[in-house]
Amino acid sequence: MAAQASFIGQKNKKEQVYTDPWHMMNEAARTPSFFTGSEVIKEAVRRASCDIMVAYPITPQSEAAALCGELFAEGYIGDYFRGESEFAVMSQCAGAAFGGARVFTTTAGPGTMRAMENFPMWAGARLPIQMIVTCRGINSPLSIQPDTLEISYLMQTGMLVWHAETAQDFYDWILKGYMVSEEPDVHLPLALCCDGFFVTHTKDMVDLTPVDMCLPPYDPYRSPVPCMDMECPPVRMMRDPFVMKSNYISYATHASWQQEVWAAVERSRKHTIRWMDGLIDTENTDADIIVVASGTAVSQSREAIAILEEEGIKVGLVKVKTLRPWPGEEIREATKHANHIIVPEFNVTGWLAREVSATIPNNNRVHAGPHVCGGMTMPPEIIAAEIKTVLGVKAPSLAGRGG
Amino acid sequence: MSKERIKIAEELFDIMPAEYQDLVKRATYGNEQRGWKDIGNAKELIEEHSLCAGCPESMAFRYILASLPNPEDTVMVGSTGCTSLVFPHVAVHNIHSLFGNQNAVASGLKRALTVRFPDRHKDVVVLAGDGATVDIGLDMTLQAWFRQEKFTTICFDNELYANTGGQESGLMQKGFVAKMAPVGKTFEKVRLPEIARESGCHYVVNCTVSKPNLIEKVIKNAVHIAREIGPTYLQLYTPCILEIGKNSMEGLQEMRDSEKPTERFAYKEYVSEPAKELLAELAAKEKERKAEAKRQLASQTVTV
Ligand SMILES: Cc1ncc(C[n+]2csc(CCOP(=O)(O)OP(=O)(O)O)c2C)c(N)n1
Ligand code: SF4
Predict the structure, then answer these.
(1) Which residue from A71, A138, A76 is spatially nearest to A107, judged by alpha carbons?
(2) pTM of the prediction?
(3) Alpha-carbon span B203 to B275, nearest angstrom
(4) Residue A218 has what DSSP assignment?
């Protein structure tokens, strides 16, 4: 933190004061503001001291990317441009991060998939790029609706993956995200996901930190791998290309490096817990039935829980905030009394239920669903009905309503 | 960067690798006059390589690295292919990320270095095979030029995908029978030098690497023009002797044969108007420097 600390108290060219991030995020006065999720991204980036933002349009993130362009025009970002495709954008982000810049980008759905080759490269090269993913459908036929299937792929790349429920989460986590991902013992990219439209295109009250405070700049020399700017002695990176010399050395090098990347994901745990106040949030975990959800499925679950409560059925809630690092221990603890664990998701495959099942004992308790996909909303009644079905309580069929 | 930064603690000097000791003792960092003739005296930027014996890419690498005007502040971007076997031995910072994305990586890199070091020149040089430049990476190659990104792109044109065993590439000659071109390639060699000019490059050269003097000149021109004006492009014939069935001593002759006036690597050069002005300015400065050196030499002679 030494180099960062030396900036604290100084002003940037926009007269913002580089502020101790802990003070800025946890102690400074907040102003309630009524914003869409996209506008909130702009407000967070305004305070993030970003060097480079690369943009490419895809619904539902286009507006956020355009608003960041306005920030550049106003002088809050070092450089900003539109790349030629998501594959190129993520490569441009990589180049900028290799060169020691704090980098920000946004994408969604098909864009995430087109860029996919870059993400394990980012993680392997230890580039702490922050990418907002405003999830949308990736399947054919074409869909622009919210659907979180892409998160399932991102989780295996070695990136940190967080899943925001609300615009407030988004605002705080963009700024906190840099604090976690830039730690020397972490130094990994972050995919900060949300359910497109539900978060990006709805307005909400969000408490913003003061506009004249911003994060201290990124210090690339705290990276565990050399910054590519020729400011440190240029050693020959390897005296023998191991790929050619010995397959065994090549296997060993790659195997140990992949393990190191995942070890860095683990090391991010302590920083993430500190900044995010835990990897999960819980309510009423002494209940017999517990809903485990991430993203806006959490909001829908809260509504469902309120409906059931009126009928005398008590249901607890686990909000999963980060998927990488995976809060296995926390979920095990929070669900230990439950006989039924319900996992509603905005995708057809049920990646969250799979992860939960894989990490808790007696996983026949896990009920994967309800699932909605292709952009359908998830009425709380569906979750409530599913819970009743699991309990063996008769519920009127929703499909029959109004028939 | 400066030579001062690569000093080794004296106690550790003798246990450092020989190349590193050489780097410290004989580095040509900070010497603007460095060129290919230094290769025999100093080996600071490249020593070994894992290319096939006699592969012209190895010569090309040496000439290019010896000719960089400012290696102490140059970052190179490579791509997957035979060249990626050499980069691990190269003593300037270099990035290998994926196959074909080199010009996109270089765009981000150059912009980051410009934001971080607004008062200094940090040169970025891309060096990749023809598959990476013209096939899988073509959109990123062109778009970097359209956007006028200030770096040099060098394509090692060996007219096929060498690293994967000789598949068809866009720069392959029409009619050449290759793996994945089983009845002969059906379309003409892509005219990338012309496309480069039309896409906004300020300096474009198409040639072989048979003449080190020439390579030194075009590298220096390309880097200086990219630094001050905009994108530059060099297409260098580095034949894949393995895939065209030549032996290790025949690479040089293959290049000489293909640079004859009617052949596809006859020397071709395009210089934009602003680039011409810059080159004239640089030539005038060089003339003045030489005259000054001569004057100083004369005055020293008098004192003696
Ligand atoms: C996305 C992707 N597709 C395919 C490959 C396999 N691949 C590795 S090198 C190469 C060909 C390289 O050809 P070129 O760029 O001409 O360089 P050369 O080996 O001829 O120097 C290919 C197809 C890869 N690494 N990545
Ligand atoms: S395969 Fe061809 S291009 Fe590659 S190193 Fe061998 S001779 Fe050179």
Answers:
(1) A138
(2) 0.93
(3) 7
(4) P
